[in-house]
Amino acid sequence: MALQALQSSGVAFRRILSHFPEELSLAFAYGSGVYRQVGPSADQKNAMLDFVFTVDDPVAWHSKNLKKNWNHYSFLKVLGPKIITTVQNDYGAGVYYNPFIMCDGRLIKYGVISTNILIDDLLNWNNLYIAGRLQKPVKIIAMNENIALRSALDKNLRSAVTTAFLMLPESFSEEDLFIEIAGLSYSGDFRMVVGEDKTKVLNIVKPNIAHFRELYGNILQENPQVVYKIQQGRLEIDKSPEGQFTQLMTLPKTLQRQINHIMDPPGKNRDVEETLLQVAHDPDCGEVVRLGLSAIVRPSSMKQSTKGIFTAGMKKSVVYSSLKLHKMWKGWLRKTS
Length: 337
Fold this sequence. Notes:
By secondary structure, the chain is an alpha+beta fold.
């Protein structure tokens, strides 16, 4: 599986992991504290480390974590692990974040998500939140032998490639592809308007082309719809209506439904396949796909950010928002200087 190429046995990450309950189906670190970025997030040494912990039984995991790390939680801790799990699963993007935690001498933020909810998001892109994180290079710290999870991780990468193809011209560079892929989970994200550096996607990709190539290289070489000229770093894809229809039919189900909702006139009630056939012949096919992505990401990111006020607590939420605005301001100054 392509994702395994980026596994890390880094002692620092494993030391941090030792402070938490062990029952994890997947644990990974991501973001500017793990992979070098340019721009306002370039200070790797002092950047907050971001983690995601995937657990089979969130109630049991939070129960153990509350005993080990009571002070990590906001006021919701007094309501107990069942309420915390309900907030985690039923609101926002299905992930519960504890930010601004000092752990083993580093400032960290960690999110907890149910294995079943993650698998569903990887396959169907219900929220494209953690699934979106996993479309970019991450450091895998721990992964068990859950075959369904491993298969879903791989499917998520293949879906990212197909979706990016639909939004690209017939011929393009590796960098063009990776920028499109890295931007999928930011399409429609309101934080890209308020709080995030506008060049964030470019800053993620440019210093990490080799990591993206490692993540997606095998998938691109196996894909029958692309000519991958590795030495030149160029790709050519089939942009015929037939080729685009094949790609549209393999998109995650939620994205297909959103495209159908956008394109289906009121009262017509066409099935998804009929709508996708129409989109395949549309010169603006890529823009329709982008609108479909925005329809997934926008509400998901807004609900998750609102949820953060409760899971992080008001004080931490204000500090976190201030840091994001500071990054955006630094990015703007850099751009205009």
